């Protein structure tokens, strides 16, 4: 048993080291014409002053397409104030699909003939100035069909946000390969030709998850999905509902691809059971192995965070590292708890709506009053 434990813990450290080793150092960008950035916002969006400032600071030019239901005063004001580069798209309220998906489909139908490069972002990210250019680089160079970053949660102070952030950091720093990459809708890019090839508007129809739908469609079409490893994009994690956020993310997976959920849950379950053995029966040597590996992972992740995030962002992200050093078993058990909880229901509460999902499709939805 000890041999297996040492082997598993060694693999986790090597996986994080693999991520660090493949971090790009040159971080080249491309600045082609015909770039459009698509942003879906909720009705209560406050205008995202920091997000807009960060978008204006991008190293690559683009047009911003803001998709709303038609009842977002801040988005209307932004389009009126910044009409030279911001276009507003009114989608209305969805009746049989996710609100975000509904808005993205409206944005796709509003594209102009000259729009050749499509970038999708979320409203809660803190994008670095290289975001647009870095996502475009593998596309322009012909090295990918879909390029994606990944979220780096910045937890507020408090135990639960830090714990959820630690779980997400496990996922963020996993080794990534083009054949097994799932895009993240918060920072994702593709060419117009790829969107047409996937018939993206039709592919998204009736769906709740945009990135899971696009990723699975890309896999079926044998597209090249490439991670941009230095784009771990900062995203704030609200203290309220932090655990529910983690469950919701896994519920997107289980309702779209049960096989993917089973594989991920199986891997975490083995680690969880091995931690229970180490703490209960393995003795001090087994505990030392677990904590030694946890410390190694934390030190490597500290370097990754420092390399890809701004100074203030990195300081917030490092709060999550404390969990992996103080109670690494808690991170693994919390991860498994989220995965199991995700499989107990097909209802996903998101953006003021309750959705019931079967095989990725919305079968029922109710507005939360």
Q: In words, what does this structure look like?
A:
The structure is a single chain. The chain is globular and about 65 Å long. 51% of the residues lie in helices and 19% in strands. The protein has one domain (20-259, 344-367): Spore Coat Polysaccharide Biosynthesis Protein SpsA, Chain A (Alpha-Beta Complex), CATH 3.90.550.10. The model has no long low-confidence stretch (mean pLDDT 96). It has helices at residues 2-21, 49-56, 73-81, 99-109, 131-140, 159-172, 192-197, 200-204, 210-220, 242-256, 258-308, 311-317, 321-326, 328-342, and strands at residues 35-40, 63-68, 86-90, 117-121, 125-126, 146-155, 187-191, 225-237, 347-350, 353-358, 361-367. Strand 9 (347-350) and strand 10 form a beta hairpin. It is of the alpha/beta class and 369 residues long. The strands form two sheets. It has an eight-stranded mixed β-sheet with strand order 3-2-1-4-7-6-8-5. A three-stranded antiparallel β-sheet has the order 9-10-11, covered by helices on one side. Helix 6 (159-172) packs parallel to helix 10 and helix 6 (159-172) crosses helix 14. The chain has 14 helices and eleven strands.
């Amino acid at each position: 048993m000890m041999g297996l434990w040492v082997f598993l813990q060694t693999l986790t450290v090597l996986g994080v080291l693999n991520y660090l080793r493949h971090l790009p150092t040159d971080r080249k960008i491309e600045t082609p014409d015909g770039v459009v950035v698509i942003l879906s916002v909720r009705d209560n969006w406050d205008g995202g002053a920091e997000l807009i400032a960060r978008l204006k600071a991008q190293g690559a030019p683009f047009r911003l397409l803001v998709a709303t239901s038609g009842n977002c005063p801040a988005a209307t004001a932004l389009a009126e104030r910044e009409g030279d580069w911001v276009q507003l798209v009114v989608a209305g309220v969805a009746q049989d699909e996710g609100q975000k998906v509904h808005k993205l489909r409206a944005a796709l139908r509003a594209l102009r003939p000259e729009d050749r490069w499509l970038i999708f972002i979320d409203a809660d990210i803190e994008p670095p100035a290289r975001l647009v250019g870095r996502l475009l680089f593998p596309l322009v160079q012909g090295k990918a069909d879909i390029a994606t970053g990944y979220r780096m949660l910045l937890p507020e102070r408090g135990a639960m946000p830090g714990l959820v952030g630690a779980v997400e950091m496990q996922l963020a720093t996993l080794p990534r390969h083009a054949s097994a990459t799932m895009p993240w809708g918060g920072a994702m890019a593709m060419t117009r030709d790829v969107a047409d090839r996937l018939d993206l508007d039709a592919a998204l129809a009736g769906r709740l998850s945009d990135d899971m739908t696009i990723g699975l469609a890309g896999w079926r079409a044998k597209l090249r999905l490439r991670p941009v490893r230095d784009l771990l994009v900062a995203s704030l994690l609200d203290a309220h509902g932090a655990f529910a956020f983690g469950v919701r993310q896994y519920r997107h997976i289980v309702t779209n691809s049960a096989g993917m959920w089973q594989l991920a849950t199986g891997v975490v379950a083995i680690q969880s059971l091995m931690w229970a053995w180490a703490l209960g029966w393995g003795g001090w040597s087994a505990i030392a192995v677990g904590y030694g590996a946890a410390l190694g992972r934390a030190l490597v992740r500290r370097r990754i965070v420092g390399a890809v995030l701004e100074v203030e962002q990195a300081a917030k992200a490092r709060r999550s590292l404390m969990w992996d050093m103080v109670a690494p078993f808690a991170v693994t058990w919390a991860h498994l708890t989220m995965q199991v909880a995700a499989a107990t229901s097909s209802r996903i509460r998101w953006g003021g709506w309750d959705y019931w999902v079967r095989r990725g499709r919305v079968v029922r939805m109710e507005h939360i009053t």
